[in-house]
Design goal:
Blueprint (H helix, E strand, L loop, with lengths): L2 E8 L1 H5 L3 H10 L3 E8 L3 H7 L9 H8 L4 E9 L1 H9 L12 H5 L8 E3 L3 H11 L9
Antiparallel strand pairs: 1-3, 1-4, 2-3
The structure holds adenosine-3',5'-cyclic-monophosphate.
């Protein structure tokens, strides 16, 4: 399988629950390397730009107000099949439908406050990584 990079966000609910370390352990135990990371309190305009693809969805307003409600922890993960691996570790978008033992099943409360974001394809991953990190921020090994 190819080595990929993906963007991961630990959302305000999970940051407030103080589980950044537990989430990072899951990444590392699954063979994913954290090659860039930063904590940010997003502005409305940042969040709206990042989630522009969802602009006309009925949940957009709630999504934006949730994403600016507190700091988020943003990281680039690298590893074999990183995009699918990260999505497997997160579990389904709706924590009520997420498999037991996944991050969302363990730490999320609702489809809006769902603890994590992860890129869903190679194309989106490249766009999302570039949204938050410049080339010099991403550690190459
Ligand atoms: P995320 O992976 O960050 O991408 C878009 C987010 O919109 C999603 O996680 C959810 O947190 C949020 N959202 C809220 N309601 C819905 C919904 N009905 N369907 C999909 N995503 C939703």
């Amino acid at each position: 399988m190819a080595i990929e990079r993906t963007l991961s966000i630990i959302k305000p609910d999970a940051v407030a629950k103080n589980v950044i370390g537990q989430v990072y352990s899951r990444f590392e135990n699954a063979g994913l390397k954290i090659i860039a990371a930063r904590m940010v309190h997003l502005s409305n305009s940042d969040a709206e730009k990042f989630y522009a693809a969802h602009k006309y969805r009925p949940f957009f307003k709630d999504l934006i107000s949730f994403m600016v409600s507190g700091p988020v922890m943003i990281q680039v993960l690298e590893g074999e099949g990183a995009i699918a691996k990260n999505r497997y570790l997160m579990g389904a978008t709706d924590p009520n439908k997420a498999e037991k033992g996944t991050i969302r099943s363990d730490f999320a409360d609702s489809i809006n406050a769902n603890a994590m974001h992860g890129s869903d394809s190679l194309e989106t991953a490249a766009i999302e990584v570039a949204f938050f990190f410049s080339e010099v921020d991403v550690y190459s090994r």
